[in-house]
Amino acid sequence: MRIESIRVESFGALRDREIAFSPGLNAVYGKNESGKTTVMEFMRSAASPDRKRTRYPERDKRDAGSMRVVMDDGSVAEPSLDRPMAQAVDPATFRSVFAMASGDLRDSKIITSGDVKSRFLTVPGGEGVPGAKARISQEMQALLTESRVSDGTEIGRRIKRRGEIERDLAADRGGERYDELFAERAEAEKRLEEARAGARLAGERERADAVRRSQRGSLERIEALRREAEALSASEIVGEGDAEEYARLKGAADGRSGALRDLAAAGPGPAPPGLDAAALKRREAFIREIPARQRAAWEMSRRRAEMSAAGAPAARGRAAPLAWVLISAGIAALAAGIALQSVIVAACGAAAAAAGAVCAAIGLKGAGRSPPPAGAAEAERLDREISAFRSEVEAAAMDAGLDPREAAADPLMLARALDSALARERAAEARRGAEIAERDARSELREFLSRFGGEERFLALARDRKRRAEALSAAEALEEAVRASGYWDLPPEEPGAAPMEAGAGAEGISRRLGEISREMEEIRGDRRMERLRDEKALLDSELAALARRWGTLSLAESILDEACGEIFSGVQPAVVARADSFLALMTGGRYRLDSDPRNSDVSVASEGGSKREGQWSSGLGDQIMLSLKMAVASELSAERMPLILDDVLLTFDGERKRGACAALAEMAKGAQVLLFTCDTETLSLMREAGAAVTEL
């Protein structure tokens, strides 16, 4: 399919515009503010509307317009803003792939994830390779890290335990060790009882000391809060509602300033040099009558032409001059018709010009004959009234400082100049009102702040007032807690061991007693060493099995890498192959897309090695994204949908632009390409690539 033309009735700042496009490669050039982006957004909205309110220009319910689209089968469709074209893709995909603005070029999510990636960018049969490789690596890391033997791995834990067993087996001393343990146990039991008694006493003292410490801290905190509140007493000058009043006055003043800026920004521009607005206002009554009088002049011109064509009223020797008057009136009417974009006015102008021509021919042929006196008088009257209207228009234009010749060709320019002058006068009055309101709001704010020594001082006092209230509230709460604690009824302090230290000592002795008992039991039964030897044999068997598993996984990883390198090195999806060809054109063959299924992300290969997305320069990333999206656009829809681009090459340097234009020309062999640009260098390179140029 291709877009043959668009007709914009109303959209943003565009009115009554019709633009035609050629098949194949198109460059649409327009300087900044020429409506280029607005034209592209109109085409986007008619093809695949997006309901987001942040689009430029902002949509209006009165917007209207349509496109003429020729489908691949030769049928014609005319989608419009009210009846957009049914699309095979969603609006987000359409705008990110088929109708890209410069900001959409780097949106990689649409093609590097989800359905588009699985359909077009994945090597057939390689979908599960990244997951399999990740699972192998994860299991190998759980068994053994290659850099060092860690206790956190399966093999590392078993190696550590095997070493502990070997040390225990080497240190076994049998019965001698049993006697040592017996004596140690008796001493430990005695020390355990003493430690438990000391821990009980220490705990009681600690609980009392904790109450004293907590309350002393509260008293010190109360005193500090009282001092803080006293230091902030100057902030009492700020009343209860002063903060809210400041916020209200500040908001009002800022709002008035903002309104004044908005009026200044939105107001009409300055008057043209030499324009006399006062003169226009003096002639307002005449200027408002111009449309009606212009229609009357056109009617008189038509009647005058009919009279001349019938061989009627013209004085001897005046037929030819009168004919030229009517021809001039017809041409002026046509000029006014073009300026007003009115079919009726243009038609009237054409009729007047034609009538003047006929009159000239008849008048010249019949020069020298004396017409009837009554017809001559009527002809002269019409000539005088037409000439008088023209003279009045020229006089009004000269009085107002306008070009009388332009005013004669387009009398309605006086009305436009008058409306513009009145609009500037109204805007000036509105600005004066906004300035007064802003000055009053600022004055009221200054008067309020004067009580506190200015805005900075007021804000500081307001913060201090809040801190003082918080300090007083906290002091009152602490005083209530001290009164309820019974602080003064506590027993006096006594020195002694801390309960935590005493408790820790008792726990340590208990653990040691347990260890002594277990060791003595094992020596009596003579079974501990046997169990250690059995455990060591089991660990040896497990280590051998785990080592074989790690070796198997390492071999599988190597086989997977080698197989992928051989099997998939020459296999590429159709979209990747097409994108690869576009990228080669853009980069002069320096880069190619990497289709290795072991890489879950899009990557490129060059003589310097492979680069993933995070390693691309911004320029290379733009080339890759443009190549991929062009390739996806070629395959995503059954219809060969046009590719619409808005200054996507603006950030490219000259060499990259030339390569991108060559790639776009290649794509245009199978689908229409429309590149909107404000860049003269891009325009020149598109011309070299064979693009048809449309200037806005």
Structure description:
The structure is a single chain. This protein has helices spanning 36-47, 91-98, 109-112, 114-120, 129-143, 154-170, 175-231, 242-266, 277-282, 284-309, 319-340, 343-365, 373-400, 404-409, 412-450, 455-485, 499-525, 528-567, 574-587, 618-636, 654-667, 680-688; strands at residues 2-11, 14-20, 25-29, 64-70, 76-77, 99-101, 592-594, 603-606, 609-612, 643-646, 673-677, 692-695. With 696 residues, the chain is an alpha/beta fold. α10 runs antiparallel to α15 and α20 (618-636) runs parallel beside α21. Residues 313-371 have low confidence and may be disordered.
What's the short story on this structure?
The protein is an alpha/beta fold and 696 residues long. Helices cover 65% and strands 8% of the residues.
* Total strands: 12
Terminal residue distance: 23 Å
- β-sheet strand percentage: 5-15%
Q: DSSP helix count?
A: 22
Mean pLDDT: 78
Major sheet attributes: 5 strands, parallel
What structural class should be given to the helix and strand makeup?
alpha/beta
How are the strands ordered across the major sheet?
6-10-11-3-12
Query: Low-confidence stretches at least 5 residues in length (pLDDT < 50)?
Result: 313-371
Helix content: 55-70%
Shape: flat
Radius of gyration: 47 Å
Topology:
Blueprint: E1 2-11, E2 14-20, E3 25-29, H1 36-47, E4 64-70, E5 76-77, H2 91-98, E6 99-101, H3 109-112, H4 114-120, H5 129-143, H6 154-170, H7 175-231, H8 242-266, H9 277-282, H10 284-309, H11 319-340, H12 343-365, H13 373-400, H14 404-409, H15 412-450, H16 455-485, H17 499-525, H18 528-567, H19 574-587, E7 592-594, E8 603-606, E9 609-612, H20 618-636, E10 643-646, H21 654-667, E11 673-677, H22 680-688, E12 692-695
Parallel strand pairs: 3-11, 3-12, 6-10, 10-11
Antiparallel strand pairs: 1-2, 1-4, 4-5, 7-8, 8-9
Helix pairs in contact: 5-18, 6-18, 7-16, 7-17, 8-15, 10-11, 10-12, 10-13, 10-15, 11-12, 19-20, 19-21, 20-21, 21-22
